[in-house]
Fold this sequence. Notes:
The protein is of the alpha+beta class. It has 9 helices and 4 strands; from the N terminus they run H-H-H-H-H-E-H-E-H-E-E-H-H.
Amino acid sequence: MVELLFLPSVYAPCxxxxxxxxxxxxxxxxxxxxxxxEVLTMTVDVAAEFFAEDDTVARGLGVLREVGVGYLxxxxxxxxxxxGEAQRIKLxxxxxxxxxxxxxxxLDEPTTGxxxxxxxxxxxxxxxxxxxxxxxxxxxxxxxxxxxxxxxxDIGPGAGESGGTIVASGPPLALAGMGKSRTAPYLAHxxxxxxxxx
Length: 198
């Protein structure tokens, strides 16, 4: 980084490592013809195929794909991740570990920025946590997630200072029929359209 007095800083690749962040000795080490810098430019999807023969690595990459972040690069800096992506990576870490349950997970809008098919993958993984004896609490506006929840707390009646009160609560089908809930019409519409695919 070259700092300029009255202009934004200028970034240029390091002349020694040429932007790879590794010295020549490290880059000389290869696995299936690729060095560490080349591996870190792979997306999770590409890396899953590349490491298919290594069960430990393939398992971790498989869970990352299941939570819907297969498009991320392995070497992508954490500062470039959205909040939802960071949560899903943390979720993958928990799913990858062998857990015995009795853990509370609180997720804030984990579906943000996800394609609908990836939302379904995420729901499947959240259900795995619940099936393992854990409790999952999500703050979410995605009706696919609400429809498969065991219990919904609808907080409002508005946003910000106009909210903070439990307006309605109950299982999805019951909440969908509660007139005082602002979520109810959206949830009822989603359930009438065929509901969740999971």
